[in-house]
Write a structure and sequence with these properties.
heterodimer; A: mainly alpha; 85% helix; globular; B: alpha/beta; Rossmann fold; 2 domains; four-stranded antiparallel beta sheet; 9 helices; 24% strand; P-loop_NTPase (chain B); ATP-binding (chain B); transport (chain B)
């Protein structure tokens, strides 16, 4: 028995961790399903939805635009160097476009929005939880999932593809600017090559990814904020967890989606 | 008591993880009566209140509102009969004062037009002693006492049958606490509402209560009319209402 004791303790620790993980995942899935169901059931709160659309979509434009611009530029420089190693500098326009549209537009845009929006949602809902505003909503016959969570989920899921699309365009323009001014490309050739090689599937897959990332961003912000611990520390922790979990889930989802959309 | 009680709790139990908070609460509040629940911090006062409100689901026991059992199904309908004043006010800080007061009238079923809701809100604000000018301010611009008044106005906005008060005087100076106590007493009498208050402020108890229940270690330790409170020989009640450090209630909780 004495020899077995440490093993038992070890196994119990693993068991506890697994149970916590399963319980947490289950609770999150239920939270998500319930909230999504409220998107489709009245009463709706259009004013709240509009406010979130502005906040998540419109005010994220500068962040996403600047990220795309610099990424597109850097991408052009890198591919020029890389392509130069086997005399393929002419691939710059098409690879910049495909790279931006399929991968970097949605992923980097998503990560930036995760930092901005997940954090602010978690902080806001966390503060509302701590100051009993969420309980107050319930006592005023308003379901917090319907009033707070559903509009945020919907707004982020719809806004993110639009943001990603704008990011795509700006990113390609960034590549174009660098290509034309620094790498000696002919402007019309650059644009023609971009158009020729870019397909609807490239763009579409990126937008699907962006919608999923938008959902993840709002879900993690809401989930962490809704279940925030007490006090300033609780809200701080919720905010951090929201950004970290949203970012990691975005990267994981990106791989899974890429695998699903473009099987090797 | 021949009448059906407005609120009836029997054998209500609740645990959070390994921590048992309520160990079988039995409590009745008659229609139009003002019951105050006293007890130290962490004895389960808030949890009792939140169980009646349906924010927390008890593990065992029954809760009846107006003779009908409170379930998850009829919770929505029940909530429309409730008003609640939260400890910190719990005002929505993204909305102006009048939008807070009119929240229930502007959301959900049977919503009123903006102008009408605003009018009612201003009327309720006046009832709790606030001028119409405060209507367009944000909660953050108000003092603690004024926030409490707004919370009160919001709680009574739709003339609820049952009103809950969570530590209504906490964080207020003694004069403002007195004002809020009087206001609560007046409103409850005037509206004929049933009131359930939790507090550990004895001045508040004497001002608001018809009946007092003391909760200790998750059970109702004592209950009776407010006049009986001073005459009881229950050592727990005696220690609590006189604020003695020595007694059966452990000072470290």
């Amino acid at each position: 028995m004495t020899i077995l004791a440490p093993i038992q303790i070890f196994l119990a620790a693993i068991g506890r961790a697994v149970l916590t993980l399963c319980g947490g995942t289950g609770a999150l899935v239920l939270f998500a399903l319930r909230s999504v169901s409220h998107v489709f059931r009245p009463p709706w709160y259009p004013l709240e939805f509009g406010r979130q659309l502005m906040r998540i979509g419109w005010f994220s434009l500068p962040v996403v635009g600047l990220t795309a611009l610099f990424t597109g530029g850097a991408l052009a420089l890198q591919i020029y160097t890389g392509g130069g190693r086997f005399n393929a500098e002419s691939v710059v326009p098409s690879i910049v476009a495909i790279g931006m549209v399929r991968e970097l537009g949605p992923v980097l845009g998503g990560l930036m929005v995760a930092g901005r929006v997940s954090a602010s949602i978690a902080a806001e809902l966390g503060t509302m939880r701590v100051t009993e505003q969420i309980d107050a909503l319930t006592t005023l016959s308003t379901n917090p999932l319907k009033y707070l969570v559903a509009p945020r989920l919907l707004a982020a899921t719809l806004a993110m593809p639009v943001l990603a699309f704008i990011g795509d365009v700006i990113g390609i323009m960034g590549g174009f600017a660098v290509g034309v001014t620094r790498l000696g490309f002919n402007p019309s050739t650059y644009i023609n090559t971009t158009w020729t090689y870019l397909t609807n599937d490239d763009v579409g897959s990126g937008l699907i990814k962006a919608a999923v990332f938008g959902f993840i961003i709002a879900l993690m912000g809401c989930w962490q904020g809704y279940n925030s611990g007490r006090g300033a520390q609780g809200v701080g922790k919720a905010t951090t967890n929201a950004v970290v979990s949203a970012s990691i889930l975005i990267l994981a989802a990106n791989y899974i989606l890429t695998e699903a959309l473009f099987p090797a | 008591m021949t009448q059906t009680p407005m609120i009836r709790m029997s054998g209500v139990e609740k645990a959070f993880g390994s921590k048992t908070v309520l160990r079988g609460v039995d409590l009745e509040v008659a229609k139009g009566e003002s019951l105050v629940i006293i007890g130290g911090s962490g004895t389960g006062k808030s949890v009792t209140l939140k169980c009646v409100l349906g924010i927390i689901h008890p593990d065992a026991g029954e809760i009846e509102i107006g003779g009908a059992p409170a379930t998850r199904r009829n919770r929505e309908a029940l909530l429309s009969r409730f008003g609640m004043l939260f400890q910190g006010g719990a005002l929505f800080d993204s909305m102006t004062v009048w939008e807070n007061v009119a929240f229930r009238m502007r959301h959900g079923h049977g919503r009123l037009p903006r102008a009408q809701a605003r009018e009612i809100a201003i009327e309720k604000l006046r009832r709790v002693g606030l001028t119409p000018e405060t209507a367009d301010l944000f909660p953050a611009e108000l003092s603690g006492g004024m926030q409490k008044r707004v919370g009160l106005a919001r709680a009574i906005a739709t003339n609820p049958e049952i009103i809950f008060f969570d530590e209504p005087t906490t964080g207020l100076d003694p004069i403002m606490a007195g004002v809020i106590n009087d206001l609560i007493r007046e409103l409850v009498t005037e509206m004929g509402a049933t009131a359930m208050t939790i507090t550990h402020d004895m001045t508040s108890v004497r001002a608001i209560a018809d009946r007092v229940a003391m909760i200790h270690e998750g059970k109702i330790r004592w209950q009776g009319d407010v006049e009986e409170m001073d005459r009881t020989d229950d050592p727990y009640v005696d220690q609590f209402i006189h604020g003695k450090a020595e007694g059966p209630i452990a000072a470290i909780r």
